Amino acid sequence: MVDHDDGGAARCVTFQIRPPRQIRIGSGTACIRTTRRIVSAPKKVAAMGKRSAYPRRRLDCYDTPPEAVAPLIGHLAPGVRYWEPCAGSGALLTALAGHAMCVGATDIEPRSRLVRRAAAEALTARRIAKAGAERFITNPPYPSNGSKGEPTLGLIRHLAAIRPTWMLLPFDFTANQYFASVASICVKILPIGRVSWMFNGDGGKENSAWVLFDAAHVGPTRFFANTPSVRRIAA
């Protein structure tokens, strides 16, 4: 793999199918087929982040590590009913089990039998109300270079108009100019430091934050310092 000045990386890929593996989500078990990438011929691909040479996965399929969810739990009312609109393999559901109640989990390309197929943008207020969801909680796809904040901004506007929405985002997201278009509906910013997305022991290269959006919000945004002693307030 070769780094490029523009943040991309040159690599060569072929695919080898691995045998199915089982994962457990809540009380269910799902069988998932994965692939392994092997170097073979040059191809330029987008990098995962500004400081990472890992290639970016299709549809930003990065499972949420449990340690990234732990700081959020103190900001949730016990047993809050939520919908996960970008559920993927259901990793976030597992991390929140025992702290919040998932009443719906969807994804454009589900990787678990417990997750139904639906685009986040297709979710309606009627469907969410029928399920009794009080919040959206999700780790959404992140903006790519030159996208001016999309698809993340579109998801924020759509979901926050239905229910208050917690999103796990790059901390730099809040520092970009495009954030101004959703700053007025930003309720809280909860930095959590660096997240290891690769599950390989690497501490991660980018800082992340949980950000709460609500289209009905009026007033300033509350910022919580990333310290163990910060007081948690349910939302």
CATH architecture of the largest domain: 3-Layer(aba) Sandwich
Mean pLDDT: 79
Secondary-structure content class: mainly beta
Count of β-strands: 15
Strand order of the largest sheet: 10-9-8-11-12-14-13-15
Write the H/E string, N to C: EEEEEEEHEHEEHEHEEEE
Q: Total helix count?
A: 4
Low-confidence stretches: 1-18, 23-54
At the fourth CATH level, what is the homologous superfamily of the largest domain?
Answer: Vaccinia Virus protein VP39
Strand share of the residues?
A: 25-35%
Approximate shape: globular
- Our count of domains comes out at 2
Rg over CA atoms, rounded to whole Å, is 18 Å
Helix content: 10-25%
CATH class of the largest domain: Alpha Beta
Largest sheet: 8 strands, mixed
Amino- and carboxy-terminal Cα gap:
43 Å
The CATH topology of the largest domain, please?
Rossmann fold
InterPro entries: SAM-dependent_MTases_sf (IPR029063)
Protein name: Methyltransferase
